[in-house]
Amino acid sequence: MKSTNESPAPRPETNEQRRLNEVRDAGVPWRKWGPYLSERQWGTVREDYSENGNAWDYFTHDQARSRAYRWGEDGLAGISDDKQQLCFAIALWNGRDPILKERLFGVTNSEGNHGEDVKEYYFYLDSTPTHSYMKYLYKYPQQAFPYRDLVETNRSRSRAGFEHELLDTGIFDADRYFDVFVEYCKVAPEDLLIQISVSNRGSDAASLHVLPTLWFRNTWSWAENSEKPLLKRLEPQKGLSTVRAHTEDSLLPNTLGDYYLYCEGEVPLLFTENETNNERLFGSPNASPHVKDAIGNYVVHGRKEAVNPAGRGTKVSAHYSLTVGAGKTETVRLRLKGATPSEVGSPFQRFDEIFSQRVKEADEFYQSVIPPAIQADPDQARVMRQALAGMLWSKQYFYYDVDKWLREHGADPFKPIRKAPRNGHWYHMYSADIISMPDKWEYPWFAAWDLAFHVLALTLVDDDFGKQQLGLMLRTNYLHPNGQLPAYEWNFSDVNPPVHAWATVFTYRLRKAGQGQVDFDWLEQCFQKLLLNFTWWVNRKDRSEKNVFEGGFLGLDNIGVFDRSAPLPTGGYLEQADGTAWMALFCQNMLEISAQLMGEKPAFIHIARKFVEHFLWIASSMIHEGGTGMWDEEDGFFYDVLRLPDGSAQRLKVRSMVGLLPFCAATVFEKAALMDDSDVKQNLRRFLLARPELTAFIHDPVLTGVGGRRLAAILNEHKLRRVLATMLDESEFLSAYGIRSLSRYHSEHPYIVHVGDREFSVSYLPGESDSGMFGGNSNWRGPIWMPVNVLIIRALLQYYSYYGNKFTVECPTGSGRQMNLYQIAEELTRRLASIFLRNEQGQRPVHGGTRKFQEDPHWRDYVLFYEYFHGDNGAGLGASHQTGWTGIVARAMHLFATTTAEQVLELGKLAAVMEVEKARSVQTVGTTAGSER
User: What backbone torsions phi and psi does residue 588 show, to the nearest 5 degrees?
Assistant: First the structure.
């Protein structure tokens, strides 16, 4: 093993890394084009202009093919420029579907028995951070797509039933489907090669219409004096069909200019306008005979007059009619480039050579990212690479001018015609940015706390983009004037956990260690905005000014007895163990940032001291003895406290992730980081002498541990052991696949509260929710969630770097097997990674009992990164492509492939961002971590 005293070896400068350097150092626009299309623009808040605010019903999937969007575009395997002026995606028709397949289909919130859900099979197989190479797979049935069956069957099922999935319909029986692989590679920043490979998995030849489609986002219908762009057919050349895309709109900043789509072969080009078909949808006349759904009408219904014979419009498809033999593959090639035919010459001359080179460069890049210990096991390497590919494919152009949107709803703040349907206090909010999305179908809008976890994974491959994403949420056009971070599109005023500071200090430390870049200005700018956010929390969520916080649902949806985002049926209010723990961690993170900044600017010493005091007040308020506090000494666990209008109080004794989050509020501070400053030391001593009660029941921050470190933590050693005993008990929280969100204890002992004649209960539900609370399709009552598991792993490593090897506990509880805290963190990572990896039977738990995914060679190596996972068997649940925060498993796998226990004791927090070569067996995360080292 490489000595931890040595500096980490720099990654080889691959061609992809050189492109990233060119973006950062010279502004070369390698990120100009990327997978920035949404996968569902219909049914979003932005497109909702209804009276009742029902976005799902106002703009439906059925309308999407005929109705021009206002705020964005969606497509199948699509790309666009970074302002989404010009878009490209594929459309397909198998000769049997009633409509052209232009976008992914799924059931809406009212149609699904467990909420909204995409009902398609598609996979993000590869992507480099500059999108110099990308690969996507869509599985398209050869029989008529069962739209009605999926809607009616799901709608008829109760919450106690399983979801009706596409495979359940029998549509893939006998392998009658096409694998449609879509690949992109960049010759230059604005020169893209496109390859569509169609493989027939059936036993008979089958026909398929492949329609690569280019179109302009409709910007002209919404603004006076806006100039309409133009797509125009050029004179045909032998073996080539070409479209010119021209835009020159003075109302658009950074107008895109001219592009040319070169289509191999003399194929028909079908032109129309990206305009609403008012006649079909609303029974009113169309301004033009050529409307958005014309290409579908032409191909599917044979309406030749639907497309424009003049060869011009704002939407065009090249029409390839393929017959694909059984087990055979046919390929379509295109090129999108900002250069004229005379400048390009033969556009496909070196096509295969360049494609092969970009694939090779992608492989080289990931060889530099994926540690050797993981590369030694091809299955682990596959999972890590697909997780990161999903992160990179989940970028989306998010356009939302809330002030304009509210005015269009008649909710002008000075001359209101009607009440704002939602987000009425966010007039300042303006977004026109590329943002990492949780899931581009189910959640095609950013979520503040999701984004913080995204950054931890994204910085493995592109720390510049990760840094930019953190700064984005803190800009004045996002951050509310009162300091609140916008939560998510459905309600910006909801409250997400304050994890932004944690991601910020991690990213800063990563860049400092990896690149030697000390960006004090960026860190200070983030800190000032985070200080506003901290102040908002203190002023808005500490009702009684006792350093005990509320916060509402805090991202944990239906975890509680009551809907925590709504007024309580009992009256009164909740003092939340998770809200208060989040604030304790927020203090620690702000203290970490202050410690970094005060080396450059001594004035930050005073701010650091303030956060020390804040943390002590908050931590002690959580755990103080006497009265009805959050800590239950008998159970050795934390609970929310219900404060009733008559002044009485009771603990809501639900053993959930709410009670484990105080464990996560733990941060070590290196000896020289803070406490060596005499001013801080003297003030802290004076503060504690005056208030000895503050540290009577929490960990004493003055005590030093391994390497002279100090620990800021709510739990002292005694309480830490008690919480660990519960957390690591397999009959409670510890699953074979990670830490459950709710204790299995509640399977036989549901927690019940009576309010009048109403009963409210919480019981263990390892799978989907049986409640409609908070939308009904998120379940924090048993399943395993990746983000909070990663926070637990972080906390274990913090405690380990303080206590060292002498602190051991049983893992699992009652097993008689002692582990130190590093080994427990490694064991949790092994369990989390095992969700996706093949087990001894060759099956991936994430795929559950779906035989097609487990056994078929054309399915079994395509991994889906779900929103959460079954608490007992690890099967994927919820949104199937929430690579956003589930992709963080790649960071956890990477951490234990490049970090040793010895390194953690030597380097502390730096161990998480400094890689060492780790000599291990190929089962880096596939064996139990409990052996003696």
Answer: -60, -45
